[in-house]
Design a protein that fits this description.
The protein is mostly helical. The protein is about 50% helix and about 0% strand. This is Hypp3242 protein.
């Protein structure tokens, strides 16, 4: 697992390597966006972006950092956050990538809307808890921290479930089932695969989809190059083409069930494709 891929699932409060069970981690949307931008920009655009940041980021780091590393550095320095991606949108506009500027602003608004929804949810405090750190992995350290807060009278949550409503947290808890237990896996039905299924699956796929395609879905490097040439600015369509190629080669046996089984064998997180199993409790 590369450092860039691990960073997409982590913050400075947790290690940059996956725990034993990577399916218990949920990708952070704005960090997924960093990876997608890095994959899409051409070399001239990367050089232009670094030139715009000269003086704001040390020259040594600009020279060795990738685009994704630069964005993560800006986040660590407090220059951007999950709810403040405008500096990146401005950079994208300056290097004449208005398509990415639009996507960045859309992601920022979606994150803000999610935070507003969490803050106004019944039974949740509308104020962030000062000094609270968000941890993503289970373990005795997490329980000790929570127990200490309860004893001190500073916790507003019960021991039954960790708090996840902090407005400053960039964790995407959409894959959580409300407790510390992993979601129950359900077998997908043996139904035909539609274009709508593949479009939603493509949006959910995290960084590393190319490796999944090469190792588990019969794709070749030449295939990936061809899809990137066909859809140079659309990562989702490149992924859709990958799954369509596998579906065409597999024929009638390509169903939702076989697709999910292959994703599971490829160690893709269950929450990425769990929607394909909905309505089937087998």
């Amino acid at each position: 697992m590369s450092r860039k891929a691990a960073d997409m699932y982590s913050t400075d409060a947790v290690p940059t390597e996956f725990p034993h069970n990577p399916r218990s981690w949920t990708p952070v949307p704005h960090k997924q966006l960093f990876v997608r931008i890095e994959e899409d920009l051409v070399e001239d655009e990367r050089r232009s972006l670094k030139g715009l940041l000269y003086g704001r980021i040390p020259a040594g780091k600009l020279q060795k950092y990738s685009v994704g590393d630069i964005f993560r550095h800006m986040e660590r320095m407090g220059q951007i956050s999950a709810t403040n991606l405008e500096p990146i949108a401005v950079l994208m506009e300056t290097i004449h990538r208005k398509d990415w500027a639009i996507k960045v602003r859309t992601q920022e608004e979606q994150t803000r809307a999610t935070h507003r929804q969490r803050a106004s949810a019944p039974g949740r405090s509308s104020q962030p808890l000062a000094g609270r750190r968000q941890y993503r992995t289970d373990g005795p350290g997490r329980k000790r921290t929570r127990d200490a807060a309860v004893r001190a009278g500073t916790s507003t949550t019960s021991d039954a479930a960790p708090a996840t409503d902090g407005l400053d947290s960039d964790e995407d808890s959409s894959g959580s089932n409300g407790n510390d237990e992993p979601p129950v896996k359900r077998r997908a039905p043996a139904n035909p695969i539609t274009d709508a299924h593949l479009a939603k699956l493509a949006r959910n796929m995290p960084h590393g989809w190319k490796t999944v395609g090469l190792e588990c879905f019969g794709a070749t490097t030449a295939d990936i190059d061809r899809w990137r040439t066909k859809y140079p600015n659309d990562r989702d369509m490149q992924i859709v083409e990958m799954f369509k190629s596998w579906k065409d080669k597999t024929g009638k046996t390509a169903t939702l069930r076989t697709l999910c089984d292959k994703l599971d064998k490829a160690d893709v997180q269950y929450n990425v494709y769990s929607f394909l199993t909905e309505g089937n409790s087998e």
